[in-house]
Write a structure and sequence with these properties.
This protein has 10 helices and 9 strands. The protein is flat. Helix content is 46%, strand content 18%.
Length: 238
């Protein structure tokens, strides 16, 4: 029983290492060759995990081989467009200038219902407002509005906007994030003073986010939300 436990732990650790080595995109969007490898990984690992009579290397060696093959395919796909087209496919325009391309849908084996579902997932209930839609290589549908239905940009409206970047999380579940605090140009004493002025301690804060306009938003563990202009607008940039 203990041997099965150890073998399961080793194979699970190997699976995690391989999946991490494939990159973050593998976890969210599968290309055809990545999906095939993931299915094979599960099948190869299951045999030595279930039976002690199957040598552990019978699971680890195929996993290593598939990792090498996957890395080679990924490298070749990145360097040669022809290889990428074969193993991953190419994006296909299915709506152009507001007109659905029926031939393109037929080539992709997609029905009109599939297209409408994809448009809804992209945020479009009314297909007549879509100017362009593309079926990406991974099967997802990217949709863009026609010019008459898109929102105007701030530049078109003549509105001057400041820099908008990534907010820094200074506190997460009561724990001060020292790296983000240093990146903001402030120290723990500054943060503690801000909290103390309001009778708070870091342990009472569920989330503290500092945006690029210098606004600090505090969500307390008891549910309250406080907004503090902690720094001058335009002084924070990352």
């Amino acid at each position: 029983m203990f041997t099965l436990f150890i073998r399961g732990a080793v194979l699970y650790a190997a699976m995690i290492l391989v999946m991490r080595g494939l990159g973050k995109r593998q976890l969210g969007e599968f290309q055809p060759f990545e999906l095939a490898m993931t299915i094979l990984l599960a099948d190869v690992i299951s045999a030595p995990m279930e039976s002690v009579s199957v040598p552990l290397l019978n699971g680890l060696l195929p996993v290593a081989a598939m990792f090498v093959v996957h890395s080679a395919i990924s490298l070749l796909s990145a360097r040669f467009d022809g290889v990428r087209a074969v193993v991953s496919g190419k994006p296909t325009v299915v709506i152009e200038r507001g007109v659905v391309d029926r031939d393109a849908l037929d080539r992709l084996c997609l029905s009109l219902s599939d297209l409408l579902e994809g448009l809804r997932n992209a945020g479009y209930i009314d297909p007549s407002k879509v100017g362009t839609a593309i079926v990406e290589a991974n099967g997802t549908i990217s949709a863009f509005p026609d010019a008459a239905h898109r929102s105007p940009s701030t530049a078109e409206l003549g509105v001057a906007t400041g820099y908008e970047g990534l907010p820094l999380m200074l506190i997460l579940d009561g724990r001060v994030q020292a790296g983000n605090l240093e990146r903001s140009g402030r120290d723990a004493a500054w943060l503690q003073a801000l909290l103390s002025d309001r009778g708070l301690r870091p342990e009472q804060v569920y989330l503290a986010a500092l945006d690029t306009a210098g606004l600090l938003t505090l969500q307390l563990k008891r549910g309250n939300v406080l907004k503090i202009q902690a720094m001058e607008p335009g002084r924070v940039g990352w």
